[in-house]
Automatic annotation (TrEMBL):
Residues 16-102 form the NADH-ubiquinone oxidoreductase 21kDa subunit N-terminal domain. Keywords: Membrane, Transmembrane, Transmembrane helix. Pfam families: NADH-u_ox-rdase, NADH_u_ox_C. The chain crosses the membrane at residues 40-57, 69-90. Residues 111-181 form the NADH-ubiquinone oxidoreductase 21kDa subunit C-terminal fungi domain. It comes from Aspergillus tanneri. This is NADH-ubiquinone oxidoreductase 21 kDa subunit.
């Protein structure tokens, strides 16, 4: 018997990395929420580079366009810098989710967040009003999308349960913590 193509899951491709995979399709909020302060500093520096470079070029070799010509181009250079800075921030954070770079801090944050959700009975990756079929479509379209984001800006903004990781580890850790809490309360009583 064959599976219904509308409900069949397409498993994500497993990548061989030096660090553990946290999420093959992180939600946009998680990407920015898990970003390190160093990511924000590097992104801010990259964002400032474009208008500073333009200002320096204008000082070295003036264009003589007058007051009305410099301001719009400076706004454009600033917008390009901000977009570039956000791109760098998103890329650095996603690379940790994918396990391409060192991610022990993010793995610990992920474990803590998911175990807390298990303990409170919440869905691991949030609830969605989108049908399960469309959740699968969204997952397949945005999985590892950061690798091609410089060509097509594509982000995961859909809550779904297809993230390429075995979620049993969250439930096992939650069970261990709940058991430890029960033993501690039984010993103190």
């Amino acid at each position: 018997m064959t599976a219904d193509p509308k409900t069949a899951l397409v498993p994500p491709k497993r990548t061989n990395t030096d660090y553990p995979l946290i999420d093959s399709d992180p939600h946009l909020r998680r990407v920015f929420g898990y970003a390190r302060p160093s990511d924000y500093i590097i992104a801010g520096g990259a964002a400032a580079a474009s208008p500073l470079a333009f200002w320096a070029m204008e000082r070295v070799s003036p264009s003589h366009v007058g007051r009305g010509g410099f301001a719009p181009v400076m706004r454009l250079a600033t917008a390009i810098g901000i977009i570039g800075g956000l791109h760098i921030l998103y890329q650095r954070s996603c690379n940790r989710f994918y396990g391409f770079t060192e991610n022990s801090r993010e793995a610990d944050m992920d474990m803590r967040e998911m175990v807390d959700k298990v303990k409170h009975g919440e869905p691991l990756y949030g609830s969605s009003k989108v049908s399960s079929y469309l959740q699968g479509v969204a997952a397949r379209n945005s999985r590892f999308s950061e690798l091609f984001i410089h060509v097509i800006p594509w982000f995961n903004i859909v809550n779904h349960d297809q993230h390429g990781v075995d979620t049993a580890k969250y439930y096992q850790q939650a069970e261990r913590e709940l058991e430890a809490d029960r033993l501690a309360s039984a010993n103190s009583a």
